[in-house]
Amino acid sequence: MTNHFTDYRNADVILIIGSNTAENHPMGMKWAMKAKEKGAKLIAVDPRASKSASMCHVHARLRPGTDIAFVNGMIHYIIENDLWFKEYVLNYTNASFLLNPGYKCDEGIFSGLTETDGKLSYDTSTWQYQMEGEEIKKDPTLQDPNCVFQVLKRHVSRYDIKTVCQITGTPEDTYRKVCEMYAASGKRDKAGCVIYGMGITMHSVGTQNARSICILQLLLGNMGIPGGGVNAQRGEQNVQGSTDMAMLNHYLPGYLGMIYAAKHKNLAQYLEVETPKTGYWSNKPKFLISQLKAWFGEKATKENDFCYDWLPKHDGKNRSYMSLFNYMDEKKIKGFIVAGQNPSVGGPSTVQANQAMENLDWLVVLDIFEIETAAFWQRPGADPSKIKTEVFLLPAAMSFEKEGSLTNAGRWVQWRYKAVNPLGEAKSDLWIVHNLFKTIRKEYEKGGKFPEPILNMVWDYDKPGEEEPDIHKVAAEINGYEVATQKVLPGFAKLADDGSTACGNWVLSGYWAEDPEAKVPACQRRINRDPSGLGVFPQYAFSWPANRRIAYNRCSADPAGNPWNPNKPYMRWDAAAGKWITPDVPDFKATEPAPEPGADPIPVPPEKSAVDAFIMSEDGHGRLFAVKGLSDGPLPEHYEPFESPFRNLISKQQNNPMALTFKSGIFSNLAEIGSEKYPCVAITVHVVEHYQSGATTRNCPSLAEISAHMFVNISPDLAQSIGVKNGEDVIVESARGQITCKAAVNGVCIPLTVNGKKTEMISMPYSWGFKGLTTGASANDLTPSVGDPNSNIPEYKAFLCNVRKAKKS
Ligand SMILES: Nc1nc2c(c(=O)[nH]1)N[C@H]1C(S)=C(S)[C@@H](COP(=O)(O)OP(=O)(O)OC[C@H]3O[C@@H](n4cnc5c(=O)[nH]c(N)nc54)[C@H](O)[C@@H]3O)O[C@H]1N2
Ligand SMILES: Nc1nc2c(c(=O)[nH]1)N[C@H]1C(S)=C(S)[C@@H](COP(=O)(O)OP(=O)(O)OC[C@H]3O[C@@H](n4cnc5c(=O)[nH]c(N)nc54)[C@H](O)[C@@H]3O)O[C@H]1N2
Ligand SMILES: [Mo]
Known about the structure:
With 809 residues, the protein is α/β, with parallel strands linked by helices. A six-stranded mixed β-sheet has the order 27-29-28-33-26-32. Strands 3-2-1-10-11 form a five-stranded parallel β-sheet. It is built from 22 helices and 33 strands. Helix content is 23%, strand content 15%. α4 (67-80) packs antiparallel against α7 (161-168), α4 crosses α8 (172-183) and α14 (321-329) packs across α16. 48% of the residues are buried. Among the domains are: 5-232, Dimethylsulfoxide Reductase, domain 2 (3-Layer(aba) Sandwich), CATH 3.40.228; 557-613, no CATH class; 680-805, Barwin-like endoglucanases (Beta Barrel). Residues 198, 202, 235-236, 339-343, 346, 366-369, 371, 396, 398-399, 429, 684-686, 691-693, 695-696, 766, 779-780, 783, 796 line the site of one ligand MGD.
């Protein structure tokens, strides 16, 4: 999230798209409802009549997987009707930047598509700006046909209301209402907030879905202001924290790009290739070198590249979730450690994934319960005598049974304390990893291949007299410290690239520094004070980076430093006093250190920061057109989901050409376009009564009782046509599997008329499996193994099924 939950109350209009905030992020919905109480308009864009949709003024249904058409159409409407925020767009976005005249988008394919060894990729040279020496060429009149604004205008011109509604199935009058209502936020004193979730991300175009939202928000001047923002509902309590700590194969902690063997031979080369010359990321060497110091301590010196050679290097192959299972199927992976995840239920194509796991020599599961994954060898239909995988189940302590930090979707890092002792032999994950590492190190002391990194890694978390390792020591290392004194650093501004500082994760730097008033580390403080009345609460928890609550906040004021909305001033240049007045940590250079030591910093006047208000971006501007960072195009373009009843109406290109797919093998099964066998468009969702794969909630007696049966939402029309009543069993089948569940016949899903054709939608939770107090079929037996090329997230939310009545047994 660029903003944060309590900030929702500052919005004048909220667009909830692909998120069921009321069920899945109820504390977020609370603040959206505060905005509603104050007169804000709420819009839901969702195929289903979700609980969130029922709380909104307008609910636009759409066919799953058509959000780019939906949002590009809104962008088109805003440009056509001249509703964009001109002063903001001109100053803070790249609208006026001139692009290479060779750029084009033709029939859904962008310029530069190349094929090498059967693999597609984009050569992005035509997606770049025109340069004059070091300067980007611009046309502030926005008339040049190659300027970003004109290119965007042409790109979205195909997305007129009629075409959009033919694709999405949204009734035209509802669509028009959404456009009007949301575009009203493009005024100086109005704020529009987008809340999005898994309905946006879980598609073969998930990242471009999110991009279209960014463009919408930039055009309306909704970034960096209170009540604005692009706000991903990040999901389970610490998914943001795990992403920050790099639970992803292509990052080191703190979003430092992974080290690839082929292009980063040594530290100098990594830093040369990966460090932009301008923007905040130009500090990258400080972040990486401090990270190496945190990991290898005094062994890491300038002379030995701070032990860069000891880090594992990525081989450039796809190492994300779906590919791992494909490698298991190909017998290329022998051992698998699963910590706090239930892939046998939660991942896509579980029939095939469970089958692939049978090829493992060993499997280690760290969990609270004996989950389906740990018991995959005894799942219904499997023959345990034929499965040779050795399974180890290590009982883990739950969050209430141990201490540690959690980071919420609004980037607030908060400390949690242990409430009760773990049951039985259960241990904290830190204890398990700590002891695993120490045991492995002992083995390496006897010899082994390349022992140096293991033998020399800083690992001093033992706490004398206690069984549990010292988690405060871990926290201090993540925060960063001065090497000479071991003193905890106040924040990442103090990080150096000469080995004098160590820091495990630069974005979190400062979270462990003491709050002088609360006398506890920043992430532990709970000072409930909001001096500005805008929900900032600067001394409540720690918001990364640098305790900044709203990102890009320079954009809340005009170039001269006057707040766009005088009623909700965020950043304000007080010309008389010659300084910035602000309730938040500025996301720009607001002061400069004084030349004489000890003197107060000197305020920097607004004009200086106005030229690079988006400080994290190399060119300092919000990108309507993404010159880099995306593998599938600089602008969002509608492609159909990989399983779809329809041909693409926008171009000849049916699907995202860059998507992650498996061309052969057990993960390659897909229904054909317009399949008569599988006519219904299916989505899977999260529900309030269960938690994700259901491992925890199906083991909780009260929740298992409240929601005891796997179900599918079908429309009354569909129920009638297949002769099924509410509560009766149906079989839902896809190209990958079939499951039996109870029919929930109601108005949650109703058929949409898509390009003149009545199209049934169905929706299922994915929270059941064969273990626990209530058991039931897993929706993921049906889902495809196709993914977004940037995030590699599976297309869980648009696939084809057929539904028929189950025979009574
Ligand atoms: N009680 C409870 N709370 C939870 C969870 C839980 O399992 N149970 N899980 C947590 C986690 S990890 C996460 S990630 C979040 C998930 O929370 P959400 O992001 O809200 O996820 P979903 O319920 O999967 O989907 C959200 C909405 O997207 C809609 N949708 C589906 N396809 C499309 C589409 O193509 N376009 C649009 N516009 N909408 C679409 C669905 O109908 C649904 O209403 O919740 C978190 N909170
Ligand atoms: N079809 C479909 N599939 C989906 C989704 C969807 O919308 N549709 N949503 C996806 C999303 S957003 C998510 S986040 C995933 C979630 O998928 P999973 O992460 O596989 O699901 P969970 O049930 O949350 O599994 C977490 C496991 O961790 C255990 N656990 C809890 N606390 C601890 C702890 O402190 N330590 C340890 N070691 N274990 C612990 C729990 O008992 C549980 O078994 O599912 C994804 N799968
Ligand atoms: Mo999630």
